[in-house]
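Lab meeting prep.
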Amino acid sequence: MENENKQNAEEVHKEEAKEISSIEEAKEVVKSLREQNEQMKANLLRAEELEAVRMVSGKSAAGQSPPEAKEETPQEYKERIMAGG
């Protein structure tokens, strides 16, 4: 009887230890995720700043149209074909 009580007590102690270690592990994961989240926020702010600078400097693709394709004249076509291109 006394041996069974010791075994039960040991099992309860092991389960409590597992719960504590699980809680500690979860806390570490949460801490890591918060740090990563802060880093992502900083990266996003930096990207927004760079895009704003690009827009102000006129190097952004916004509002720009692609250059119009020049239509080849018959003479240019003949010369290109005769040159082997």
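Slide two material, second protein:
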Amino acid sequence: MYHLNQAWRPSFRRRPPGTTRVQSQAHGARQGVTAAICAMLVAGMTLPTAWPSDASAAQKFTKADLEGKWNLHGLVSGYPDDVQSWVYGTMICDSNGVFTQQTTGTTGEGGPVKGVFEISPEGIITIPGGSGHGSSFHGVMRDNKDTIVLTGNDGGGGCFLVVYTRSAGTFDTGDFEGAWVCHGLISGNEPDQVPGWYYYSMTADKLGNARFSTIADSQGNKHHTVRPCQFSVAANGVVSLYDPEGELPFFHGATNPAKDTVVAVATMAPGSIEDIRGYNLLIGEKQVPGAYSTSDLTGTWYMHGLVSSSTYSDWTGWYHCTFAVDSHGKGSIVPGSYLNSHGETEQAATSLMSMTSDGIITMPSPAGFHGIMSIGKDMSVATMYDGGGGYGLSISIRRRGDKFDFDADGDVDFVDFADFASHWLN
């Protein structure tokens, strides 16, 4: 699919011993369930025989949701002898999931690729009966059905993360007006490229004139500033960037019909040329200050991520999992849902997240974690240090669960009743 003129080479490198993907403390079974239930009974309440259901929360997807024209932007990472590249292009898909896409990478334009997508009622996207690198493809569709996030093996030894945004509706440069928070990941091989992550904020006026905050990156820099520049948005949603100094080698992006997400690829150094630089995947989320709280994280999240590095000793590749978060920001990887490009799986682990009123998400582990919630509160983007030595970027799509599923594990059970009892008693 993202084969860039190199022969397919399988990679069986493993993560260095003693490192784990999720650098957070696993928690044991929930305590006090029986006591909470007994307390409720003493208070004169009886246990329900059935739990009500919020049917409106159940989002159903079909192949018809794939129909249309899509812009795609992605990043390929790998080890020093693997493919490393950005990729962009277009995809046309019919109502049966049959797609044709044309892509361009750093080595040039690739021929058209055809295939068939399957999509589950939950919005999970795969290629049925796939073999080779095609069998690794795994994605998820956003609730508003204008964005798809997909990971897989590229066929040249590398691993990719690709974001599809629907090319539908009307677009113009004025759509860019407002505040944005952007996260980026860089892949490539030293010394020409130096992988890493970065994030920054910016504001743009209705003419696309943008001003930036200082940039924070994986090397610990927080003092670099970006000179003002100008964005433009074409009628098909494609985003271009004009650099008045003429020093930007390449930039290509697109926005979604909701106009709250911009995805782009570039060849650049986001800060100083002496620091991280190379092939960029950049994702911007429009920000509405004062509109968020930690409880907005509640729900089931489908996470897809990519890790880049420049050495064999570091872990690199893709991963995906399902992550459930309660109203207090306590998140848990759903057991059996985690898989990475090395075929490794993980047991459930937990971490405590918090979100500011401006939509900035933080958590104590993994180190360096910094994220942003979309204004629709159904998608988040984050960068972090990977526990295996590399640099990570994750994109998570939220499903709002049943209103009685307090622990957001997809089941309404006695653990949820205990949660309710505990909060009621307190």
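Talking points for slide two:
The helical segments are 33-42, 414-425.
Residues 1-57, 422-426 have pLDDT under 50 and may be disordered.
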